[in-house]
Amino acid sequence: MRGASYALALLVLLATAGEALAEPKAGRGGFAALEGQVREFTLPNGLKFIVLERHDVPIFSYQTIVNAGAVDEVAGVTGIAHMFEHMAFKGTTHVGATDIEKESEVLDAVDAAYAALRAERWKRRDADPARLEDLEAAFKAAQAEADGFVVSNEFSKVLEEQGAQNLNAGTAADVTMYAYNLPSNRLELWALTESDRLVNPVLREFYKERDVVIEERSMRIESTPSGRLFENFVQTAFVAHPYGNGLVGHRSDLESFSRSQAEAFRKEHYVAKNMTIAVVGDVDAKQVEALAQKYFSAVSAAPAPPPVETVEPPQAAERRIVMEDEAQPLVFFGYHMPDLNDPDFQSYKALADIVGSGRSGRLYTSLVKEKKIAVQTFMTAGFPGEKYPNLMFGVLVPSAGVDPDSALALYDAEIARLLADKPITAEELDGFKTRAQADFWKKIGSNGGMAEQLSYYQMMTGDWRNLFREVDEVQAVTTEKVMEVARETLRKDNRTVAVLRNRAGSAS
Q: Which site in 89, 104, 467, 489 is 20 to 30 Å from 197, CA atoms measured?
């Protein structure tokens, strides 16, 4: 379908006046009743759809989740999964283009110009300065010509003009997600545009956006002491597994990888069998299926890529990083733990919650309220992702004038008491279960939250029904099991510690 016919199709779909958006209400009823309302189907190409009808307000939300995140990147292209978050609204062969045939030719010229420039850069000391200058100029000229064919932000404008809200895309360690809300009478518009984005994307303005990502890296990591400490912490905690690469990517990769490499990543990972789409709200499940068959059947039916096979080896000794800077002292710590599909995963979540989550956690109570040696503590399970074995991750921010090593020593003493003579109590565990159930309802109360959870659990566990099983798993956690995983996990030989010291002495 070329630009003119696509525009005509849009006019047909948008003939009906839009209805006002409204906030969706929280879900009601028991877990079993809610689970029973969910419908699912799979297209012949392998694309899975999950649909939940909620007719409270004339709005629906969706989430497309791609089983591709930073963990799926390899050396040389780290950060490339994140690039697709920036490419998400750049348009397609139909949207954002004035002359797609000429634009495609010019984009090929951009790729060729960049390949020549990169080849000369790879020569390092043998690179010809004059040739580099000429190639750089040719590359910039090709990009400028390509810009002349771009209708900026047209993809977003088309949707926003028809009532779309919260247009969003996000990259995590394990997955990449795309989501927004639309009035329910715009369902076919959604099917048309979302399928077009999956089938016919154009990675236009790629190198401009790559520069934006490089600037993000500079601001979030390289220009802040805490960012540099955090990156070193993750890279030290994972010596083999790609979780150690982080989300943004290495600077040298960001400065080097090409649009053609991004296209290769997309063709490998953005295939039907590697994606799930959840639609929740004021929709008819049968209509969703009909539209899915009409528009999404063209998504690639290629095999899904294999999972990451590298396994992080057991840690034999504590790993420690110490940095000095003119900054607030800080301590990061992480303990290796199993993945989301481990039968005891909720016991690890309980441990992290009781020990270090919120103002009721043991660490906050002891180190912040009572001893006043810290201004903040935090601990969470399932970092930086949950698909593979990961970390129970914690943060300790010492109070002014408190040396971070002294704060860490008091933290260690608190953990020692937990393991020796102050085990988790039934009251503490009941508090975790109450918070977990409240958090569950909070996550699924909105249409967008439900779409996110259904698609996430389908992708991460192989069955969206495990979202509802989690509630039972939480209730089945015992104090004995929490203490068992505490003894297995909270060992110094199983942890990585990163300490940021103030160069002038202690705290700033």
A: 467
User: Alpha-carbon distance 36 to 46, whole Å?
Assistant: 23
The amino acid at 424: I
How many angstroms separate the CA atoms of 284 and 384, rounded?
37
Question: Sheet containing 176-183: which strands, arranged edge to edge?
Answer: 38-42, 48-53, 275-281, 59-66, 176-183, 165-171
- How many C-alpha atoms does 7 have within 13 Å on its Cβ side? 7
pLDDT tens string 245-262: 999 999 999 999 999 999
Mean pLDDT (the chain) is 91
Q: At what angle do helices 80-87 and 206-217 cross, to 10 degrees?
A: 120
pLDDT at residue 10, rounded to an integer: 39
Distance CA 309, CA 56 (A): 45
Per cent of the chain over pLDDT 90 is 89
Q: How many CA atoms lie within 13 A of 432 on its CB side?
A: 29
Phi, psi of 476 (to 5 degrees): -85, -10
Q: Parallel, antiparallel, or unpaired for β 390-398 and 374-383?
A: antiparallel
Which residue type, as a one-letter code, is found at position 58?
Answer: P
At 355 the three-state DSSP class reads: helix
What pLDDT, in 10s, does the model give residues 324-367?
A: 999 999 999 999 999 999 999 999 999 999 999 888 899 999 99
Give the pLDDT score at 478.
97
Q: What is the DSSP string of 23-47?
A: PPPPP-S-HHHHHHTEEEEE-TT--
- The confidence score (pLDDT) of residue 357 equals 84
Each residue of 69-107: pLDDT tens digit?
999 999 999 999 999 988 989 999 999 999 999 999 999
Compute the radius of gyration of the chain from its Cα atoms. 25
- Distances in whole angstroms, Cα of residue 263 to Cα of each of 91, 97, 137, 205: 15, 18, 24, 13
From CA 336, how far away is CA 94, in angstroms rounded? 47
Helices 479-489 and 404-420 cross at an angle (nearest 10°) of 140
336 strand-pairing partners:
391
Contacts of 119 by beta carbon, 8 Å cutoff, 6+ apart = none
β-sheet bridge partners, residue 206? none
Name residues whose C-beta falls within 8 Å of residue 299's C-beta, 6 or more positions apart in sequence.
43, 45, 47, 195, 198, 199, 271, 272, 275
Interatomic CA distance for residues 83 and 469, integer angstroms: 34
Check the CA dihedral 44-46-50-51 and report its sign. Answer: negative
Residue 360 has what pLDDT?
Answer: 85
pLDDT at 111: 96
Please give the pLDDT value at position 30: 63
Strand partners, 324: 501
Cα 279 to Cα 452: distance, rounded to the nearest angstrom: 9
Selection from 65, 316, 252 nearest residue 175 by Cα: 65
